């Protein structure tokens, strides 16, 4: 890496450490379900033997106030906040549309919920609220599991599907992941933080996950790249 790039990366890492306090909002389909089994780690289908997948209409947070989340984060001294845009269940908190890029109609998102007529975008409201209250936004996207697509640890499982799950190949799954990351990293402005955990479905054994997963990103998202490089070292 050129010396100038190293200095640029180092300065961003230093800026990240100076922020010190951040907030993480894990809000997803699982939030709609109270006292439900087979939902370990706040993830539908993880660590259990789930036999069902909640329909998109289960997502109906009639008292949702995204600005209240951000005001609370600011009040506790947070300089940045991260939203779970998609967790292990696979429900997308934005109206994802990757059909043109993948040929797959992703029907497990706010677009297919009756909440606010299927026109609601939690990610958009979250980023807007962060801008309003002077806090930097970040996004978490689950690469480790997608129960809707019957995948675990980045790999599509060779098991029978349950009602609500979609059948995809590994190649199609990888394309969906990259297309959704492109939506998130390029449609919501400058992000200060990108979070992954566990597997990277688009990685190959000899490559660094950060390099592969960043390949579809808008090059202007330099802050997000620096944050990811910091977290994957």
From TrEMBL:
SUPFAM superfamilies: (Trans)glycosidases. It comes from the Eukaryota. GO terms for molecular function: alpha-L-fucosidase activity. Its EC number is 3.2.1.51. InterPro entries: GH, Glyco_hydro_29, Glyco_hydro_29_N. Pfam families: Alpha_L_fucos (PF01120). Residues 49-202 form the Glycoside hydrolase family 29 N-terminal domain. Keywords: Glycosidase, Hydrolase, Signal. It is an enzyme of class 3 (hydrolase). SMART domains: Alpha_L_fucos. GO terms for biological process: fucose metabolic process; glycoside catabolic process. GO terms for cellular component: lysosome. Belongs to the glycosyl hydrolase 29 family. This is alpha-L-fucosidase.
């Amino acid at each position: 890496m050129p010396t100038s790039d190293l200095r640029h990366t180092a300065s961003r890492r230093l800026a990240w450490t100076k922020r010190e306090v951040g907030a993480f909002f894990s809000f997803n389909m699982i939030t709609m379900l109270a006292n439900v089994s087979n939902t370990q780690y706040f993830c539908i289908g993880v660590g259990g033997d789930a036999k069902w997948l909640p329909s998109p209409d289960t997502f109906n947070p009639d008292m949702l106030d995204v600005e209240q989340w951000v005001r609370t984060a600011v009040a506790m001294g947070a300089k940045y906040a991260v939203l779970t845009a998609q967790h292990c269940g696979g429900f997308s908190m934005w109206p994802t549309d990757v059909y043109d890029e993948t040929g797959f109609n992703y029907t497990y998102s706010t677009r297919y919920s009756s909440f606010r007529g299927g026109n609601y975008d939690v990610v958009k409201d979250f980023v807007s609220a962060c801008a309003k209250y002077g806090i930097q936004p970040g996004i978490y996207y689950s690469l480790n599991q997608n129960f809707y697509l019957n995948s675990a640890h980045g790999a599509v499982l060779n098991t029978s599907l349950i009602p609500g799950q979609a059948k995809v190949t590994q190649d199609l799954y990888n394309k969906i992941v990259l297309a959704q990351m492109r939506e998130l990293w390029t449609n919501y402005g400058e992000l200060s933080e990108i979070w992954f955990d566990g597997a990277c479905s688009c990685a190959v054994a000899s490559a660094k996950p950060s390099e592969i997963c960043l390949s579809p990103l808008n090059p202007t998202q330099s802050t997000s790249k620096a944050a990811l490089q910091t977290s994957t070292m």
